[in-house]
Amino acid sequence: MIYDFAIIGGGPAGLSAAIYAARFRLKAVVLAKEPGGTLTKIHLMENWPGEQGISGAALADRLVNHAKDLGVDIMQTEVQSVSRKGKNFLIRADEGNFEAISILFATGTKHRHLGVPGEKEFYGRGVSYCAVCDATFFKGKTVAVIGGSDSAANEALLLSEHAKKVYIIYRKEKIRAEPINCEKIANNKKIEVIANTNVKEIEGDKFVKSVVLDKPYKGSAKLPLDGIFVEVGYHPHSELAKSLGVKIDENGEIRIGCESETNMPGVFAAGDVTSGSFKQAITAAAQGVTASNSAYKYVTER
Predict the structure, then answer these.
(1) Among 53-57, 65-69, 258-262, whose mean pLDDT is lowest?
(2) Which of 134, 150, 226, 272 is catalytic?
(3) Known catalytic residue: 133?
(4) 134 tagged catalytic
(5) Catalytic, out of 61, 73, 94, 130
(6) Which of 88, 94, 208, 232 would you call most buried, defined as having the most Cβ atoms within 10 angstroms of its Cβ?
(7) CB-CB contact of 217 with 197 (8 Å)
(8) CA 162, 166, 170, 173 torsion-angle sign
C-alpha cells in the first residue's frame, strides 16, 4: 500500500495532523514509538482550549481514539530511516516498511541531560526525567527539580503533592514559568527556589543522597536529597529529517514556513521539533493541522 500521508510522531502535532488528514480523505498512517508522545507525561493541562483541567494521558487517549475512529492507521513502531523512492518516500520502521507520497516530521524532542558526575550512575535510583512517572516513589521525601522553565514548575507542583519538600534549583535569578505557575509556586509552602545556583555533582550509595552545589546554600555546598528531577530543556529529534536533506537551524530544529512546509517538496514538519520560541501542545496541533492542509494540496496536485 502507498499512503498519501505518513506522519512520523504521535504527539499533539502528529495526531492533530492525522485527524485532519482523514477529513481531507487522505489515506494516512501515524508511525510512533509511543502514541500520545510527551502528552502522556503531563500530569495536568489547564491550557488546552475547552478543558479547564485534563491529564495529558487522557487528552492523548482522546486524540488517538479520534484519529482511529476516522480510519487513520496508527502503528506503534520506531522509525529507523526515511529516504526517497522515486517521487515518493520510503520509511523503514521496526514493524516494516511504509511508502508515502508525502510525509510529516512531528518527531518532538528528547530530554537534555545535566552532564554532571552521578547523573548517569543514579538514573532510576533517584535521578528521574519524569515526575508523572516517578512522583509516587517519593512520598514524604525531599526532592529537587533542576531547571527553571514552565515544565520545571509543573514538575515541582506535581511533586509537592507527594514529597514533603521540593527544591527548584535554577542557574538564573528567577524561574521563567508562566505567571499563573509562578504564583502557584510562591503560594506553595512545600516548594523553595534556590536561584543562581548549579548542580556540580550527584552523590549517593545505592540511591541518591545529596547534590553538590556550585555555591553554598544555608552554609553548605551539599544539599541532602532523596530524588532529583532533571528538567533543563530538550534536544529536537531532527536526525531523520536531516538525513533526508531537510534544512535545520543552528539549534537542530527543522526550518518551516507558514504552511508547515520544509525546503523539500512533499515534506512537512510540525510541533516541538520545528524552529520557533513558543512551544505548546496547542501550537503543535495547529502546525499539524496546517501541515495536513499543505499535504492535501501537494497530493492532489500530484
Answers:
(1) 53-57
(2) 134
(3) yes
(4) yes
(5) 130
(6) 208
(7) yes
(8) positive
